[in-house]
Structure prediction request, 271 residues.
Amino acid sequence: MADPPRRRKPPEGTRDARAPGRPGVIRRAPGAEKRPLPPEAVAVDRGEPVWSARRRPQLRAPELRDPRAEAMVAGVANRAARRVYDAAVTSLRALREAAARDGASEVERAALGDALLDASRLSIWEARRVVGFDAFVEDVIGMPAGEAHELVAASEARHGWTCTPIPPYARAVVLRARAVCLEAPASETTGRATVTTTGDGAGLRIVLDAPGPDAAAAFAAVGRVLWPLAEDLAQGPPQGPRGHGPRGGEGPGGAGHGGPAGPGRGRDRRS
Prediction:
């Protein structure tokens, strides 16, 4: 009968030697190099803050507190979203008619492409529960979807930004501000204030263009409807259940867009 295999003894000085008299206990051999501690353990020993790879802090985009189940656009009162949608449809239909006539210039086609690009970046069709861009341009504006995509692509190449929808908090800013500008009467000589977006990602910019004589009133009106949104975004991500804020969407951070009479208080007064 063959002898059982003998346990190999680790070489002295290179691995831990078994402590005499204590089976199963390993002692490090004298002079053996110690294994260094991981950097996280060293930082903990020094009392420094430690973030492991799985708990690395992430930069989070601002989040809206809007618990309304019937909200068409998060952070925007339904009546304000509908007002901006209706104005966009009226403008797009007029631009489409001008671009479709015989002898239409490239400037008119470019203006239609820019308006379609803006509508795509805002997903404006959601304000009236239209299912998507193709349905919006074909059934609402009255133009082939293929032609609309070509105009949008040309506008993207011309400006250098894409038709990708902007973040929800930025869309809420634009729609609230546009709704207020549409409420103000347009001047016969200078028109009314407009709100546009440029850039993508970190380069996104929201521009309020107001005529000089009406600039003070325009900035004041827009500020009144945006301060509740700014206060809500400054509080960070929602803490309540199912993404609701601690106030359930009421208070300064709610979805009401306010108006010239004063800041909103978060309740969506449907009209």
